Each structure stands twice: as structure tokens, then as C-alpha cells.
Amino acid sequence: MNLVVGVGLRTGTPYAELHDLVTTALHELAGEVRLVVTITGKEHEPALQELVAQLGADLRTFSNEELANQPVPTPSEQVEQLKGTPSVAEAAVLATGAQLLIPKRQTPNATIAIGVQRAAGYGVRDREVVQRVIAERRDVRRGFLELPVDDVTLGRVLEAAHRAPSVGLSQPWDFLVIRDLATRRKVHDLATAQRDAFAASLPEDRRAAFDGLKIEAILDTPLNLAVTCDPGRGGRHVLGRHADPRTTMFSAAIAIQNLWLAARAEGLGVGWVSFFAPHEVAAVLDLPAHIELVGYLCVGYVDEFAAAPELVRSGWAKRRPLSWAIHHEEWGRRDTSIVDDALQAAQNAVPATGQRVHVIVGGDVTQLGQADALIVDLRADRPPADFGVLWRPARTPAEAVEFGVEIARDLALQGVGHLAVQLAANSERAKALARGLQVGASACGLTHSSA
User: Of the candidates 316, 227, 269, which has an alpha carbon nearest to the alpha carbon of residue 141?
Assistant: First the structure.
């Protein structure tokens, strides 16, 4: 640790007194003193100068006005009367931006405090730029211009992607740049087929909304990028991968996010296309069998970046509030109650369009005959993957109520206007989850009924 020692001392303080006070405190910490700080006017005290030399540290001072602005844990009225600040040692440590580790300790003539220096953050303007590029990143599918992307610009974007962190520094990604129109047409055909299949699976009202959405820009952009992952890169002993092989895919996904942010800073739009089976695209691109496709991106200059994501602007869905995603110490412990959060969902929800969802609590996959059916499986064993089945193995009836409210509020953000709730099981947990669905629906302004 890089330590900061704050010192307040009287004129003529003996060095031995100051040295013993500091040395005793430092014995409790593992680290190196890089900085000694005090109030302006005390920098020429012989004891302080000798301490700084003995520690091999730098010396810095702050005015009493600067120290007076620091909220210290142990203020002193006497020091404030003498120096115009409620503390010298503690306030000087805090004024450097350090975190206080050892608060005020004192002898008859000296006072010290010790903190740890944090790595330097960015200034306000730089932080605003970072937040801006994150906030303005868009999944772009419209408005691409017929302008080429030069190799220098593309190189900067790919360099940013290549700087991504990866498990065990395995760097499992590769970037396949695709400009050939014939290849892109083959991929486009795959995406079109999957779009048609997805549309056919939707309820009629949702299908009408989907028809107005553009899902890709494969032929509208001057280049496409296939981002791949080699799950075995680095050999047998990649640090951190042994317990969770998924970390290689996570690493490639982080590289895509780096790429996306860098592209936004260059004025390049990026759209991620997921409307195809990865193995079909891999066949078109003639990828080796051991290479996995993670993302297929359309890249090009655009006429503008929209103020909000297209799915929000079109009314297809809304963002979840951050408060929904934060739990403290254990799952379900939030700053506000889940019903209060559901009331917030009513304010953020897509206006009801008449979309109806038939929620079958305690049902199974055999009941998915209708496109508006949604099964809530309460069993302890995970069912086979199916997006028509929500696996919610509630441990208690209270948790089942919470899960029901969560389902209702999330459906509200997806434009659902009515919930038809059916109990296919007679357990206490099934009844509790159905009750949560009704509470959540009411809070979010959805109509609901028993099917």
C-alpha cells in the first residue's frame, strides 16, 4: 500500500516524540509511506523535515481553508480556534484523496493520522466523456452511409477490442473482416430465414409490432465483423478457466464491448446480428470446427446516433430501472420493496397494446400450444431449455410471491397489457406465485384474470 501520513505539531516538537508516534502506528500497517502532509506554515519544522527524510517521502502542505472543507471523524474545537480547521492530521490525509486507515493519534506535542492512497481516477471532464460514450452506444441498424471505413480507423477500433481483459490472458478472440458482397448475401439469407421463423412464433399483435423493426444491416454496411472464440486457446493450464469454461466466451464478449465503444468514439455505428444459428454462419464463413462464433457485427458510418435505442423508440420494450438489479448482501434485499418497484414499472412500462399473455403456473412444456402461453415451472430440477418456460424454483411462499411480482413487472416493460393466470398446480408455492402475478399486474396497471 502507498501510505499518507498527516501530521499536526506544535512549534519545537522534539523529533523523537514525532518519530515514535509515527513508527508505532506504522507497525500496524503493511505499506510504504510515499507522502507526508501538514498545514501550510509547518513545513519548515525541523522534526517534520527529519521525519520526511527518514521515511524517504515527499512533503505536501494544505492551507487552513482547504483543510476546513474536509469532514473529519474526530474534530477538535481547540484546533479549530487555533488553526481555523477542526483537524490538521486527519484533514490533510483526506485532502489528498486518500482513505483514512488510522484516525487521529496524539502525544502532548504532535498529532498524526494515516491513510492509503487510491489509484488516480480521471478528472470530471474525462469521466463525463467515458460516461457519454457508454450512454450513447447504440445497436444501429438504420441510417448507414455509403462511406468506406479506412484501415487506419478500423485498426484503432480492433486495437481497442484486442486490449480487452481475458481469462488467464488467453485472448481467445479473433476478428474476421468481411467485405465481400457475395459472402454477406449468404449470411443475410440466413438472417432473413430466422426472422421469418421468429415472426411466425409470435402472437398476432406482437407480430404486427415486430414487422416494423429492422433486425440487421448486413448489406447496408461496407463491412461485417465476425468475432470468434477459441475455447482451448492457451492450452491446458489457463489461469482461472478450470472451474468455469464459460470465461473464454465472456472474454470474447468483453472484447466486443470494447470494440463497440471505440467505434462509437470514431463515429461508427455497430449492429449485432443474432438472427441465425451460429453453426450456419460458421459454415458460410468456413470457420474451423474448433472455433465458435460469438458475435456477427455490421459496421459503418451513420448519419446520426439516436437519442434512445430503437426498441425503446418503437415501443417494443423499456429499460429496467437500476434499482431492480441491485440486491444487498443476499438475494431479494433491496432498497425498496418489490411492490414499490412494480409501481415504478407502471411509470416506465410500454403503453398497453392489448397484448395478452397466458401464464400457466406449475405447468410444463406440453402446454405451450398457443403462442401467448408462458409456463412457470416451480420444480427443483432445471427443465430443458425453452424460452416459453420460466424456471422459478421458489424456496418459500414469500419468495414465490416475489417471483410473481418480478414476472409481471418485466412483462409490463415488454408491452404486455393483460395477464391471464392459470394454476396448473395446487401447491402453496404455486398459489403464492399466482398471487404475486396479480399483485404485480395491478401495481403495473395491467388487467388480469384467472384462466
Answer: 269
Secondary structure in 3-state letters for the chain: CEEEEEEEECCCCCHHHHHHHHHHHHCCCCCEEEEEEEECCCCCCHHHHHHHHHHCCEEEEECHHHHHCCCCCCCCHHHHHHHCCCCCHHHHHHHCCCEEEEEEEECCCEEEEEEECCCCCCCHHHHHHHHHHHHCCCECCCCECCCCCCHHHHHHHHHHHHCCCCHHHCCCEEEEEECCHHHHHHHHHHHHHHHHHHHHHCCHHHHHHHCCCCCCCCCCCCEEEEEEECCCCCCCCCCCCCCCCCHHHHHHHHHHHHHHHHHHHCCEEEEEECCCCHHHHHHHHCCCCCCEEEEEEEEEEECCCCCCCHHHHCCCCCCCCHHHHCCCCCCCCCCCCHHHHHHHHHHHCCCCCCEEEEEEECCCHHHCCCCCEEEEECCCCCCCCCCCEEECCCCCHHHHHHHHHHHHHHHHHCCEEEEEEEECCCCHHHHHHHHHHHHHHHHCCCEEEEC
Contacts of 101 (CB under 8 A, 6+ apart): 3, 29, 114, 115, 116
In Å, how far are 7, 206, 298 from 199, measured between CA atoms?
71, 9, 22
pLDDT-derived band at 208 (thresholds 50, 70, 90) equals confident
pLDDT, one tens digit per residue, over 331-363 is 988 888 887 777 776 666 666 566 899 999 999
Which pLDDT score, from 0 to 100, does residue 120 have?
80
Q: Cell digits for 277? A: 444459428
Rounded Cα distance between 22 and 113, Å, is 9
For residue 136 the three cell numbers come to 450513447
